[in-house]
Amino acid sequence: MTPTAPAAPAELQHGPTVVGVDSSLTATGLASSRGWCNVTGHTDKKNPLTKMPHPARLAAMRLVRDDVLHHIGRPDLAVLETPAPSRSGGGSHERAWLWWELYAHLTDQEIPVALVSTNQRMLYATGKGAASKSAVVDAVARRWPAWITGGDDNAADAVVLMAAGRDWLGHPLTTMPKAHRAAITKATWPDHALTPAPRP
């Protein structure tokens, strides 16, 4: 998916830069408050990453990590979705490696990192702690239409994470209902980020 950067609303040009990250080895969703979203990862279906010999697998995983970090850059705040404990199946070991590599790099670079769970992301997007992928995609299209996801749920998830981060910092992209904003109080926010603006 090619980064899509429509003309960002004027208020985004001067607010804090926040990047949402929904990590995956095959389709990491990324979204920036500067007006773009993207999906990147290992996409060679004929040579799946988890079937590679370990040396080649590690090299491919490092390429994914480096590409994701390149997209993240140096924002004022990075919002990562936490790994779902119940998620199993092939590649769980590799997915965990990618998440911790991203977290380690960001913290080593002293980039503030917020942690938002899957249910908290769903709550912020839809007002419900459990929602289908299509419901989140539809919510993003309605509430944050400047971010063109093309219906990709990974990109949509990243937009929600980014929007939650902007909201916490006191620079919401749009006014959110109280039920949705309950997710903000449940997430884990860094101690050393920009000071959130007081909210009524």
Describe it:
The chain is an alpha/beta fold and about 200 residues long. The protein has one domain: Ribonuclease H-like superfamily/Ribonuclease H (Nucleotidyltransferase, domain 5, 2-Layer Sandwich). About 40% of the residues lie in helices and about 10% in strands. Strand 1 and strand 2 form a beta hairpin. Helix 1 packs across helix 2 and helix 3 crosses helix 5. The longest helix has 19 residues. The chain is globular and about 50 Å long. The termini are far apart. The N terminus is likely disordered.
Would you summarize the structure shown here?
By secondary structure, this protein is α/β, with parallel strands linked by helices.
> How large a portion of the residues is in β-strands, by DSSP E?
5-15%
CATH topology: Nucleotidyltransferase, domain 5
Rg value: 16 Å
Coarse shape: globular
CATH level 1 name: Alpha Beta
Helix/strand/pairing class, anyone?
A: alpha/beta
CATH homologous superfamily assignment:
Ribonuclease H-like superfamily/Ribonuclease H
What is the string of SSEs from the N terminus onward?
EEEHEHEHHHH
Q: Number of helical segments?
A: 6
InterPro entries: RNaseH-like_sf, RNaseH_sf
